[in-house]
Amino acid sequence: xxxxxxxxxxxxxxxxxxxxxxxxxxxxxxxxxxxxxARYVVGHPEYDGRLPGxxxxxxxxxxxxKRRIIDEHARSPxxxxxxxxxxxxxPYDLTYPACQTCVMDDPQRHPLQYPCPTIRALAAVxxxxxxxxxxxxxx
Length: 139
Fold this sequence. Notes:
Elements: E1 3-5, E2 15-17, H1 23-43, H2 53-72, E3 84-85, E4 90-91, H3 117-124
Antiparallel strand pairs: 1-2, 3-4
Helix pairs in contact: 1-2, 1-3
């Protein structure tokens, strides 16, 4: 498979294999499917109420929570010259995209590479999906 650059903004500089979504696009698509499924079940004329409304509301809240986690752990828009090592006041020498949340989680460590373990854990739930990329597995 060949690679090309996709996305807008910070993700535009990340290359992906042609035909494969980015991990963010993959997650957002799976979440949208779950949300649609939950809404469909409740609205379907043959819905018999076996799944309580509170369970459907929980699924919808989980979808929203996952979106917030994805937003919180997005790829950092900063480049290597803008990410400052807090303890020494020097720029990190980043040769990889970093997570915007995990980038400054501990001044004694380098920023975590994007996708960070949090994003990888969210994606691992869908490991049996045809579009899941095994390279997204937790390191």
